[in-house]
Design a protein that fits this description.
The complex is a heterodimer of chains A (about 110) and B (about 110). Chain A contains no helices and 11 strands. Chain A has strands at about 5, 10-15, 20-25, 30-35, 45-50, 50-55, 60-65, 70-75, 85-90, 100, 105-110. With about 110 residues, chain A is mostly beta strands. Helix content of chain B is about 0%, strand content about 50%. In chain B, strand 9 (about 85-95) and strand 10 (about 100-105) form a beta hairpin. Chain B has strands spanning about 5, 10-15, 20-25, 30-35, 45-50, 55, 65-70, 75-80, 85-95, 100-105, 105-110. By secondary structure, chain B is an all-beta fold. The chains are: A mainly beta (about 110), B mainly beta (about 110).
C-alpha cells in the first residue's frame, strides 16, 4: 500500500462544476502539499498545509490531521483547470523529502 | 527573479552511457531536491541537498549520485544507464529545509 493514496485517478467534469480530489496518507506528517502538473511536465505548488484550510482564488485545500486526509476543491471549474493534481507529504520521520501520490487527471470540458 | 532552471530540456542516451543533469535553484535558495517521474506515475524522491551536504537519499541504486556546489546549483549523475531510467527528472528548490518547494521544468531523459 502506498503511503499516499489519491482518488479518483481520473475525473471528467463540465465547466462550472464543483470538483473534489481526495488524498489519504498513512504516516505522521509535518506538511502536505497540493501540486498541479500540466502536460509537458512543469509542476506548480498550489498549497502547503499543516492544519486547517487554505483558499486561493477558486481553489480550497483542507486537511484533517486526525483522519490523515486532505481534500482539494475547485469551485466553478474551467477548462484551463485541466491538469494532473498531485498530493505529496513530508513525513515526520523522513526529513523534508516529499512522498507523492499517483496524481488525479482532471479534464474539464466546455 | 528567475525560477528554477534545469538543463538540458531533453536528452537521448543509449544503454550503458552516463548522463549529467543540471539544476540552478532560485536565488537565495539553499536546498535542492531531485525527483524521478516515470510516465504515468507520481514523482519519486532521489536526493536532497542542503548547504552542500546530502540530507536525504531515496531508494535508488548507487548508479545515481549528486552534488551541490558552493553557489547552490546541483548536478545529478546517472551511470550505466538502463532503459528503465527513462523518465522526467525534476529539480526543486526551497530556501531552507521547510516550506514550499519550487519545481523546475524538468529534463526528459530517453534511454534507447
Amino acid at each position: 500500500k502506498n503511503e499516499v493514496e489519491q482518488s479518483p485517478q481520473n475525473l471528467t467534469a463540465q465547466e462550472g462544476e464543483f470538483i473534489t480530489i481526495n488524498c489519504s496518507y498513512s504516516v505522521g506528517i509535518s506538511a502536505l502539499h497540493w501540486l498541479q502538473q500540466h502536460p509537458g511536465g512543469g509542476i506548480v505548488s498550489l498549497f502547503m498545509l499543516s492544519s486547517g484550510k487554505k483558499k486561493h482564488g477558486r481553489l480550497i485545500a483542507t486537511i484533517n490531521i486526525q483522519e490523515k486526509h486532505s481534500s482539494l476543491h475547485i469551485t466553478a471549474s474551467h477548462p484551463r483547470d485541466s491538469a494532473v493534481y498531485i498530493c505529496a507529504v513530508e513525513s515526520q520521520t523522513s526529513g523534508s523529502r516529499l512522498t507523492f501520490g499517483e496524481g488525479t487527471q482532471l479534464t474539464v470540458n466546455p | 527573479d528567475a525560477g528554477v532552471t534545469q538543463s538540458p530540456t531533453h536528452l537521448i542516451k543509449t544503454r550503458g552511457q552516463h548522463v549529467t543533469l543540471r539544476c540552478s535553484p532560485i536565488s537565495g535558495h539553499k536546498s535542492v531536491s531531485w525527483y524521478q517521474q516515470v510516465l504515468g506515475q507520481g514523482p519519486q524522491f532521489i536526493f536532497q541537498y542542503y548547504e552542500k551536504e546530502e540530507r536525504g537519499r531515496g531508494n535508488f541504486p548507487d548508479r545515481f549520485s549528486a552534488r551541490q556546489f558552493p553557489n547552490y546549483s546541483s548536478e545529478l549523475n546517472v551511470n550505466a544507464l538502463l532503459l528503465g531510467d527513462s523518465a522526467l527528472y525534476l529539480c526543486a528548490s526551497r530556501s531552507g529545509t521547510y516550506g514550499t518547494q519550487y519545481f523546475g521544468p524538468g529534463t526528459r531523459l530517453t534511454v534507447l
